[in-house]
Amino acid sequence: MAKSIKRKKMTRHELKEDRFLETTKNLITFFRANTSRIILTVVILLGIAIAVRVYLSNRRSAEEIARVKKLYADAFYNNGNFREAVSAYQEIITLHGGTRSAKVSTLFLANCYFFSGDMDNALEYYERSLRILKKNPNWASAAEMGIASVHEQKGLFDEANEYYNNVINNYKNTPVRIDALLSKARCLEFTNRYTEAITVYSVIEREYPDTDFANEANKRIVFLRGATESERIPK
C-alpha cells in the first residue's frame, strides 16, 4: 500500500512572500526586455520637465520686464503725455505680447488714443483689449465703456447705449457700472428721450442711495420732468 504524503499547508505570511517574489521576478523580466524603451521614456519626461521649467522661468522674466516698462509708460499716461505713452505701450505690446502687462497695456493704449482725440485707433484697441481681457470683469467692463464712449463721441448714441447696457447688465459688481448708467441716461437726454432717461436716473437713485450719484440723478429727474411738462404747454 502506497504511503500518502501529507502536503504542508502554507501560512498567510508565506503566501504574501511568494506573491512578492513572483511580482519582483516579473518586474525584473519586464525591465530587462524593455530597457531601451524605459530609458527613452525617462529621457523624454526629463526633457519635458526641463523645457517646462525653462518656459515658466522665461515667462516670469518676460512679465517682470514688461511690468517695469509699464510703470514707465504709466508715468507718461498719468501726466497726460499721451504721445510718449503711446510709444511706450506699443513697445510693451510688440516685444512682450502674451504677458499680463502687455494685455493691460492694450487697454491703456486705447485710452491714450481716446484722450488724444484719435477715435478710430481708440475703437480698434478697445475692441482688441475686450477680446484679450474678457475673462477679467474689471478690465472687460472698462473696455466696453471705452467702446461706448467712442460711439458717443461720434454721435452714435444708440450704438453707445448698446455697450453701456452690456456693462450695466453683465458687470453689476464693477466700479464702472455707475458710469455706464449715467452715460446711458446722458445719451437718452441727447436724443430727447426724457422719459427713458428718467427711468435710468431712478435706477441710480434706488441702487446707489446716499451717494453723490443719487443726488445728481435726483436733480436730473426734477429737471427732465419739468422739461417733459413744458412740452405739453399749449403754444
Q: Whole-Å distance between the termini? A: 139 Å
CATH level-four homologous superfamily name of the largest domain = Tetratricopeptide repeat domain
Low-confidence stretches: none
CATH topology of the largest domain: Serine Threonine Protein Phosphatase 5, Tetratricopeptide repeat
CATH architecture descriptor name of the largest domain: Alpha Horseshoe
Strand content: under 5%
Short recap of the structure:
The chain is mostly helical and 235 residues long.
Topology, element by element:
Elements: H1 12-33, H2 35-78, H3 82-95, H4 100-115, H5 119-132, H6 137-153, H7 157-170, H8 177-190, H9 194-207, H10 212-230
Helix pairs in contact: 2-3, 2-4, 3-4, 4-5, 4-6, 5-6, 6-7, 6-8, 7-8, 8-9, 9-10
Describe the 3D structure.
With 235 residues, this protein is an all-alpha fold. The protein folds into two domains: 88 residues, Tetratricopeptide repeat domain (Serine Threonine Protein Phosphatase 5, Tetratricopeptide repeat, Alpha Horseshoe); 99 residues, Serine Threonine Protein Phosphatase 5, Tetratricopeptide repeat. 80% of the residues lie in helices and 0% in strands. The chain contains ten helices and no strands. The model has no long low-confidence stretch (mean pLDDT 83).
